[in-house]
Write a structure and sequence with these properties.
Structural class: mainly alpha
CATH class: Mainly Alpha
Number of helices: 9
Number of strands: 0
Order of helices and strands: HHHHHHHHH
CATH superfamily: MFS general substrate transporter like domains
CATH topology: Growth Hormone, Chain: A
Shape: elongated
């Protein structure tokens, strides 16, 4: 009698697309804002250093957040941690869009970036969970395409929105796009790190 384990099912195309869309969250938090800096500087009366800080604080927040998302998702599952990070991204986008002072904008950007860190950390972890070895190379290539496309088009979109609708519209766009990605993730993406695997991680770290 064979004791071979059944092969995991190939993730659906909708799952793959949703994972690719999640990869776009990072450029929405970082690259979309880059052409907005001059307009923010004028609107809020910022110095060059303070205006640049509204950009660099996102990089700091994202780098800091990536230290925690992996271990949190190992313990509590990929899906809830990913959705929590996406929710933080949306909250940060709202705070940024409504900011009337530099401090409020910095806070919004920081929250937005901490949320976006979930995508930077979990997209590849979910791909490793979901795809067999022979499928993983193609999946990573697909995700890399999304990750490359986002930084290419985000500054252009940010510049056009700033010229036409003002700098706050950039955060409105991030909110709408992030909301669509979050909804798609909620509806399509299943848990790829089941409780049995989490128990192994907990016991291994004990």
């Amino acid at each position: 009698m064979s004791t071979a384990q059944p092969q995991p099912r190939m993730p659906s195309r909708a799952f793959t697309i949703a994972l690719g869309l999640v990869a776009l969250i990072t450029p929405l938090a970082v690259h979309l804002f880059f052409p907005v800096i001059p307009a923010v500087k004028v609107a809020l009366g910022l110095s060059d250093a303070r205006a640049q800080f509204t950009f660099s604080v996102a990089l700091f927040g994202m780098a800091f957040a990536t230290l925690f998302y992996g271990s949190l998702s190992d313990r509590y599952g990929r899906r809830p941690v990913l959705l929590s990070g996406l929710a933080l991204f949306l909250i940060g986008s709202v705070i940024s869009a409504m900011a009337e002072t530099a401090n409020a904008l910095v806070l919004g950007r920081l929250v937005q970036a901490i949320g976006a860190g979930c995508a930077l950390t979990l997209v590849r972890a979910i791909a490793r969970d979901a795809y067999r070895a022979e499928q993983l190379v193609k999946a990573i290539a697909y995700l890399t395409m999304f990750g490359t496309l986002g930084p290419m088009v985000s500054p252009f979109i940010g510049g056009v929105l700033t010229d036409v609708l003002g700098w706050r519209s950039v955060f409105g766009f991030a909110l709408v796009a992030g909301g669509a990605i979050t909804l798609t993730t909620y509806l399509v993406m299943v848990e790829t790190h089941p409780p049995a695997d989490r128990d192994k991680v907990v016991h291994a770290g004990a």
